[in-house]
């Protein structure tokens, strides 16, 4: 029994996924079991419904936006590699990543910028690369529900967009978004540690 | 051809002898003790031996893996990811603190970064959540020699493989035929016995005989499943004129309880084999069977139950108020049911250890009971896919085998309909519930009851009812090592004057849950499910709103 026969081998394209996401085999195996558990009808992919069935996600005000992020470009299913690729944004950044990084390689999915981009696209409903005032308002509404009046929410939106908007086009681009959050400890706040 | 004849007769002879021996042994060691309700302790010994073998096998496996430098797949009893239980407010403040250059003030406002909180929380729940997480047998801490359960199977050495093969041989070639023979004996004795007793004139003698015929047959059936049952607090066993209320864990619950007490069953009349058994049983003692048409009329059911209970000479009724539907059309009757009748309720907690249908109900909503008290999402606890709110209990009385116990949140609405297709609906004498918008609201909590805790040490038997039928399920059960469970008789409870049936039902439920170390599920499930989710979501939104606009008092002050 060589190393190839270890359990992670049951995952399709495990090596490609590993390279792309940086997850260890053990982590991938955990996630693979989780993926299989979520995939109740054993289709081999997850549908929106599968994710909506997670109760704790359904009560998350942004649950639907988070689910959306698994299904880019109007697709209706996500396979394991797609699933892990999204989760890879939340892999903690370890020192190894920083030192061993090949500058020619694309930035790892869990880099600061990619983490930020992930959060950005939660606001960016139409995926045009800009958070318009309208989009901001909608996302805020999702977060607060019916608790806050329209006027209050609009004033909050206006203030937020103004603060972040440098070029004065009335919308927040990704660069502006990143800039207004530059002091933030994204690396830590957008990371989930998988237990060994 | 001609030459073979002597051998043939030899084989026939041998077969005849071995069959005779087998049946004699069966009679001496199983049926006779079953009749007198004694046990030679063979099953206990068997269980202890098995446990030792399992422990040894696991040890070997670990060693083997270490030698080959493999990482063993460890069960994630602590969840997949690291989480720190903080509230929404704290965490958002923490996030803001880390990013803000401004001196920290507590003025409510919105920050772009607040989204990180929801985003991360959401991702966490996708990677791992309390309820959806399935506790499947691969997470067993020790290998139970049923290969179907273990991920580490390939690290097994030759010796272990031989052991496993031996296990298969024993289970299929010895245990299975034995168990089938026993089940057959038990059921036919029950039918014949009760029919004969039915012809006797009413009186003490008939009662006595009837009781013993029932008990004997159930005991034989228990042995047919090699069920090793420990009964606790037998002084609290249900008495006449009461209602015995138990949590429903599996189709064999009835057998488990009835082998230790004499109950009147409640249920719907079935066709087929069940029908034959039911008709025979009702001749010997007053079980309460309902016709299919009657079942829909819950007033009638309540009336008949009340009548039964008021007659103090009649046997205690056995009810599983969790209820499982018979099928999608004639789902469930029995409104606030057993708790409304006003009889003394004798709660019984059944805790299955083993080889049961962890997956059988189709939902994989299970969580280790030991992970109680973890607060999630600020609202309190996780919400199951079916919006079951889990109110964790500290695992109580969980001293059985020491391995992680699982709870199985079954009986979601979908699952109930799934159960409709599940064969044990036909096996069990289940109380059905009424599917009615109006009633279901008040009735569901009482149905939910405490849920089974499985200790799947001895087997996995994932019975996916949509995939396997009853026969396959029984086969799996009968080819596993054993079924181990504990039964607790709790002190009788009566309804307080100021209590309504629902509250009473909940009180009984939590008593059962506490005793069995089960997770007490509170749900206002079913049709109201969407509403529940919304309510929890609103709770989150309310908390968050306070963070960005302040609470009402703040606003009025500013």
UniProtKB/TrEMBL annotation, chain A:
Protein's cellular compartments: Cell membrane; Cytoplasm; Nucleus
GO cellular component terms listed in the entry, alphabetical order: cytoplasm; nucleus; plasma membrane
GO biological process: protein transport
Entry-linked InterPro entries: Calcineurin_B_homologous, EF-hand-dom_pair, EF_Hand_1_Ca_BS, EF_hand_dom
GO MF entries: calcium ion binding
Protein's name in the database: Calcineurin B homologous protein 2
Homology family: Belongs to the calcineurin regulatory subunit family. CHP subfamily.
Pfam assignment, any one: EF-hand_7
TrEMBL record, chain B:
GO CC entries: endoplasmic reticulum; membrane
All copies of domain Phospholipid/glycerol acyltransferase, residue ranges: 242-353
UniProt keyword terms in alphabetical order: Acyltransferase, Lipid biosynthesis, Lipid metabolism, Membrane, Phospholipid biosynthesis, Phospholipid metabolism, Transferase, Transmembrane, Transmembrane helix
Gene Ontology BP terms: phospholipid biosynthetic process; triglyceride biosynthetic process
First-listed, main subcellular location of the protein, grouped into a coarse class: membrane
InterPro entries associated with the record: LPCAT1-like, Plipid/glycerol_acylTrfase
Subcellular location: Membrane
Pathway named in the protein's UniProt entry: Phospholipid metabolism; Lipid metabolism
Superkingdom to which the source organism belongs: Eukaryota
Segments crossing the lipid bilayer: 12-42, 180-201
Stored Pfam families: Acyltransferase
UniProt-recorded Gene Ontology molecular function terms: glycerol-3-phosphate O-acyltransferase activity
Family statement drawn from the similarity comment of this UniProt entry: Belongs to the 1-acyl-sn-glycerol-3-phosphate acyltransferase family.
Stated name of the protein: Glycerol-3-phosphate acyltransferase 4
Organism of origin: Tupaia chinensis (Chinese tree shrew)
Lineage, broadest ranks: Eukaryota, Metazoa, Chordata, Craniata, Vertebrata
